[in-house]
Amino acid sequence: MSRVIKEKIIEILLALSAWLTIATTIAxxxxxxxxxxxxxxxxxxxxxxTGKEWxxxxxxxxxxxxxxxxxxxxxxxxxxxIALPIGLTIAIYLSEYAGxxxxxxxxxxxxxxxxxxxxxxxxxxxxxxxxxxxxxxxxIGTFNGLSAGLVMGIMIIPMISSLSEDALYAVPKPLRDGSxxxxxxxxxxxxxxxxxxxxxxxxVSVILAISRAIGETMIVxxxxxxxxxxxxNPLEAMETITAYIVQVSLGDVPHGSVAYKTxxxxxxxxxxxxxxxxxxxxxxxxxxxxxxx
Length: 293
Known about the structure:
Helices cover 75% and strands 0% of the residues. The chain has 12 helices and no strands. Helix 5 (118-136) packs across helix 6. The longest helix has 40 residues, at 3-42. 34% of the residues are buried.
């Protein structure tokens, strides 16, 4: 087989892979919208996005998504507050302070954290982190948003540290040389020159980490309590959107019922939310990349 034919076959396979991905995405969007229509014929969009009670599985059904949204925001915020400073510190150390050999060893080891199954993280939060938190906060419940958020933060540290380290490493060398030439220390160069110069990549890593935290399921399903509770107190039990989808998908809800259709309505809400976040990250990339090229 000639080289031209081989390259043509590879080109066709790559194009098919790209079109398959696009078709899958379009199919998911069509299913979400088509299945959600049945739900919104029963519940108004306004009641859905402003309601303060979420009890679709109870006899008296309420369909306000705010309790699920507050649980999602609280656990994701705790995760980012943990992951951002630790991940960014690791990225700066690996990029500017660590030797090449140490960096080559440590970076893959950090990324092992991302390979741990999330169900393991969930039981780690329930059996290790929550008892530890009870020593500090005696009033904290067995199921709470704080332990789930803390462990989610540990889980997304590799994402922030790895992407931020790549962004710092990609800063043009003349910027470093110019800073050192003006007499700046390594610390000043790292925080006053390199971090601002790599800010677009760092922001994107944070936004992607937020999207990852929002979409996390098993940790919050195990550790947060699966109780839709409109609160911003992380010491209380709560439920996220993804945890609710898991709860309804267990098979106890009759197929075609309104409670069943809430799966698609909440999934559509989550899809739009993460879609907006991803578009913000693309906007940041386009806006700031040209500035430093």
